[in-house]
Amino acid sequence: MTAIASSIKKRCYFWALRAGAGMLTVAFLWGIWGSCTAAVADYNEQLNTPETLRKAVTLAPDNAAFRALLAEALEGSGEDPKPQLIEAMRLSPLDSQYAIRRAFRAEIEGDFAGTEALLLEAARLDHKANPRWALMNFYFRRGREADFWHWFNRTLSVSLGGAEAVYRLGWNMAQDSEVVLGHIPNTPRIMRQYLEYLAGNNRLDDAGAVAVRVASSGPGGQLPLLMAYCERYAEGDPGRAVLVWNTLARGKTIPYRPLSPESGEILTNEDFRIELASEQSRHRVFDWNLLPVEGISIDRLPEQKGIRFDLSGEEPETCDLMEQRIPLAEGKTYAIDWQAETPNDTPITGLFWQVTESGPEPHEVTAPIAGGAAGSFVFTAKSQSAMLRLKYARLPGTKRASGSITIRNLHGRLAR
Predict the structure, then answer these.
(1) Which helix H or strand E contains 318, and what residues bound it?
(2) From residue 96, how far is each of 85, 120, 145, 243, 376 by CA, in Å?
(3) Against a cut of 0.85, is the pTM above it?
(4) Residue 289 belongs to domain with CATH number
(5) Dihedral sign from CA coordinates of 231, 236, 240, 242
(6) Longest dimension (CA), the chain
(7) Could you tell me if residue 191 is inside a domain?
(8) How far apart are the two ends of the chain, measured CA to CA in Å?
(9) Is 312 a member of any domain?
(10) Beta-sheet pairing, 277-278 with 289-290
(11) DSSP string covering 92-153, please?
């Protein structure tokens, strides 16, 4: 009884303060009685047995929560909880949890029409997510697809937090990305949320249309995820990557121009105006990736639309200096042009371009770079993507290269 005494003591002290020191008014006495009754009800509710909860309901007959607890205790002991749930609904008609609990009980008893009616009433009174979630699950269990998708959509429309369980249930109903997407509200917030779900559940192959929608509506905090999506498909399925990349570029979300392998626009940042990245610093996708090499320093010269390499003569005998993934249209013939400059036209040997295509017929095309001269090389695409690399290899019978060379006016195009 210590808990009861403590609760009564606190409530009596409160009412004594309300009444004023030395004044034992009717209000004070009534307050003490109400506090004592509430304290006993609280104590009985905490014991959480049918007997004590019945006492709590007797002492606080208008408390819907006590009646719901009593219903739960009765159900656990094999008794009928329905009268208490009905009373809880009457006492708190706007609280949907009691209707949902009654509906769950009706479903267990096989009263599916009653279940549906109770859940629809709960959703009418409460426009938050819980009644909608309960209806969606009910229709899923009953196999009523049209009703399921209706409430799937309505649940997502009010879900403010994570909705992973909703998306998972949608995929359980239909293993079809287009069907699921067709019932998801097309809002930026929900599309970003759904893209995150697909990525986290290894379903990026189903995320193409979602990624484009997110990219076109402003990716918010999902830009890293969109770039990772592009990175994932840049080699094996570049059409997917280019579509999202171009959507981001047209919206000025990324500082690059759109790519078009069909018309020859295959190089990104070819004037080097955007700072280059190292492999570890961020997703490169179609931008240049610098490959640091001991003995070689690199300076970007955006005002000259170029990049300078200073070779110390102590660099490795073979190395890669920078690379870029380029999208291609199979069967198209491309040309890559550049201008190489060295101080006083001092020759530097060993630098060359290499295009390496992956796919069923991997092959390489190389072209040497000669200081002080324009250069160009042509290749015909046998796949949909390739890696363009600037490389160095010491030529047989020569010393390692030493000196400076600037590459300017780099440009990719369709060969005429």
Answers:
(1) strand 318-327
(2) 11, 10, 24, 45, 72
(3) no
(4) 2.60.120.260
(5) positive
(6) 113
(7) no
(8) 97
(9) yes
(10) parallel
(11) -TT-HHHHHHHHHHHHHTT-HHHHHHHHHHHHHH--SHHHHHHHHHHHHHHT-HHHHHHHHH
Query: In this structure, what is the dihedral angle of CA atoms 324, 330, 333, 339, given to the nearest 10 degrees?
Result: 0
Mind listing the pLDDT tens digit for each residue in 251-287?
A: 999 999 999 999 999 999 999 999 886 544 455 799 9
Which two tokens mark 4?
Answer: 């009861």
The region, left, alpha or beta by phi > 0 then psi within -120 to 50, assigned to residue 176 is beta
Cα→Cα distances 356→145, 259, 361, Å: 50, 19, 11
Q: List CB contacts of 129: < 8 A, sequence separation 6 or more.
A: 155, 158, 159, 160
Tell me what pLDDT residue 95 has.
77
Our count of domains for the chain comes to 1
Beta-carbon contacts of 203 under 8 Å, excluding residues fewer than 6 positions away, are 171, 177, 197
**Alpha-carbon distance 411 to 406, whole Å?**
15
Predicted confidence at residue 47, as pLDDT, reads 54
What tokens were used for 104?
Answer: 């769950």
CA separation for the pair 101, 69 (Å, rounded) = 11
- Is residue 310 packed enough to be buried (19+ CB in 10 Å), middle (13-18) or exposed (0-12)? middle
H or E element: which one contains 11?
helix 2-19
Place of tokens 């959507």: 247
The three-state secondary structure class of 255 is: coil
- What are the Cα distances from residue 394, in Å, to 99, 319, 402? 80, 9, 11
**Structure tokens belonging to residue 388:** 């363009």
Domain around 391: 277-414
Does residue 270 form part of some domain? no
What is the per-residue pLDDT for 11?
Answer: 44
Residue-level pLDDT at 71: 63
Q: Which residues pair with 396 in a beta bridge?
A: none
3-class SS of residue 405: strand
List, for the chain, all residue ranges whose pLDDT scores fall below the cut of 70: 1-48, 50-51, 54, 57-62, 64, 67-68, 70-71, 73-79, 84, 87-89, 91, 277-283, 359-363, 371-372
| Chain segment 304-313, per-residue pLDDT in tens | 999 999 999 9
pLDDT of the residue at 225: 92
CA dist 28 → 7, 32, 278, 367 (Å): 17, 6, 77, 99
376 inside domain: yes
Residue 302 CB neighbours (<10 A): 13
